[in-house]
Fold:
Amino acid sequence: MTTYTKNKTINLQTRLTQVGQLIGNTPLYPITNVYAKPHVQIYAKLEWQQLGGSVKARPAFNIIKQAIIEGKLHQGKHLLDATSGNTGIAYASIGAALGIPVTLCLPKNASEQRKKILSNLGVNIIYTSPFEGTDGAQIKAKELFKENPERYFYADQYANQHNWQAHVETTAPEIWLGTSGRITHFVAGLGTTGTFVGTTRGLKKFNPNIQNIALQPNNPMHGLEGWKHLETAIVPKIYDEKLADQFLEIDTLDAFDMVKKIAQTEGLLVSPSAAANLLGAIQVAEQIESGIIVTTFADDASKYQE
Structure:
């Protein structure tokens, strides 16, 4: 190994540590105005307050970190994956900081703002059918990897165990400590399912009595980017159907209405998926007499503005 190569390896490991300090440790925000009920408190974890601007920074960083440690990814190899936007932006932000090129398969109907962000971060974007969603993007990514395995490290977020493990190691402990161990319910939407699966498994280690509620769109033709209607979509391999204590459905139009309510009453500009999570948390709040409910606001509104 040349001195130059050694230095690059050392610098990558050092940079990895530095970038890791910008992942996680997001605040818990008490919801007090858009909804209130005696003896029930809802908290939202503001996940856009980390590098990459969304909850997906956690699994993206863990996937990249583990691939580097295992020698599967380095500065001369492209990270390849399918995404609806947020994980891709997290990959791109972390990849840019580490000097790792990123190639992403993205449905053509992703928001224009997400496309601009990815382009500005230097991503090689391969657009896929707007009618196939992330399922079509996954198929294309697998084809590219099969055609040129030496060029790509295929991250495969929907099947990568380091996705959900990131939430066991970071999200769950942060929620537990942030609520002083008083959390009674965790609520999250299903997309790649990593947030729900990992956080649920992590919280159950602290207290097996914590109730974990999974949210889905109420129909296949929904408008919640990043979410899946699992009955009609490719189910992620990391998903564990036995984990949820309850399933609730969310209407897209209700979520968009809630975006406005959150802005006007809580002062937070959030994404439709974040608003959908809050709708689910409110449904849970209506079912109980007392408790501490925690959900995630996966990202803010910045990626949805044209």
